[in-house]
Amino acid sequence: MKIRFTIDDIAAARDAGAIDAASFERLSQFLASRRAAAAEATSQTPRYDVVNLLWYAGALIVLGAFQVWRGFRPPPRTDFYAAR
Asked: Most C-beta atoms within 10 A of its C-beta, which of 9, 24, 62, 77?
């Protein structure tokens, strides 16, 4: 289970006296650095969404239709090197 904290949650803990001001500053800087690192990491990872799925599904449909049109037979054998 993942629990996500925001700056507001940590500020509420500071106001309630659960943590001191120095701990609040360290935690807020840590959260800001993690948020920046997470934003950079998500911008660099490839995304696979519905558009990608439909693109590849369309390609499979085209390849399947070509095989049906050809009659499911293997390509003809050509002896390219034997003719020379």
From this structure: 24
